[in-house]
Amino acid sequence: MTDSAVIDIRSVTEDDLPGWTRTWGNGYLRPYTDGGVDAIRSTAARDRLIGAFDMDRCVGTYRSTAQELTVPGGAFVPVSAISRVSVAGTHRRRGLLSRMVAMDLRGAFERGEPVAVLDAAQYPLYGRYGFGPATAMAWFEIDVNRARLDPRRTADTSGVLLVDAREYSKAAPAVYERLRAVQPGTLRRDELWWQEATGQRAGSPSGRPEPFFALHLDPVTGEADGLLCFSAEERWGAMLPQSPLWIRDLIAVSPQAEAALIRFAVTTDWVTTVHLPYRAPDSLLPLWLGDPRSARVSALSDYMWLRVLDTPRALSARTYGVEAELVLEVTDAAGYAAGTWLLEGGPDGASCTRTRRAAQLRIDVRDLGSLYLGDDSATRLSVLGGTEELRPGALARADAMFRTGRRPWSPRAVLGPRYQAGAP
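Below the sequence we write its predicted structure tokens.
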């Protein structure tokens, strides 16, 4: 067995890509393909690829990408978005993940990225590195026969237009950007992302059936303000339709657009079940239906995890629910976010500076990540031990400042052939 101290943790080179891709695929039970290597190669210039190497064999993978996160108030905060993390089963429990995380977080801090984010495939892994669950997702399954929507009521789906991939790709990015400007928890989707979403990216798997695309047009301006990508499968039983419809992406700027697109999906001919993943738990989706109980939550889980690296930059970037000040003592074993900070904020902006004043609230960096976008409350977190009230009233003040009217949401589309609850 190789001593873990001699396993090299380093940036990945062009020659490493096939082995790195194979190791990541093994970790996620995905077969190796040359197309998979090409896909990684096409984004390698913008990504930070890290690998663990035992001699010349890749035994661990890690990727981070420069991203932008929308925070309460609408600011775009530069973040390091982490993905494709794996350690070979033959090399677990040797600290390889810890070393890769440490290398990347150090790089993110030095690059001036105040926050790091990831989607955790396994819950227990990332709290030890200072990440806390910052958004959640709900997976809805709609029983069409109970939804009480009449497909003959065309007014319910007014403005919806079926389009091809080319027309969709022209209009969809602008719709998403309008949502990204106002939705806390949202990440940027670049041109490569849209090319993959519409099957136009080089190296996309061939032979994959093209999904269906729809847009919703604003009745006043005629501009697209909603988008829908879905796939369906024709099924019959005893001359009765039993077809499922899988929504792969649904983005709406207005409530009217969201309602029309959902009702369009639910009233599609022959469809008996609609699956809609990765929505905010407080989504209004059920209320767009005639019977809200027809939309059953089949999965509810944490989703985006967040790690604050630069406390003053992160906290001063967002707005707050009430005008107030709060002295926070942030504890961070790695040291990045640690310190005592005076947060002065309100609906119009905020500042965060180091202070010698006595702390009113002590909070671990993991809890700060859960609090940052407004999805959790300081009062709730204090019960679990990572947040401590040092002055009476501090928990209530933190709740009033950090919580938002609607829960943050991290929109995700199902791009590949896999479609299952919680798939990373």
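Residues 181 and 196 are 23 Å apart (CA to CA).
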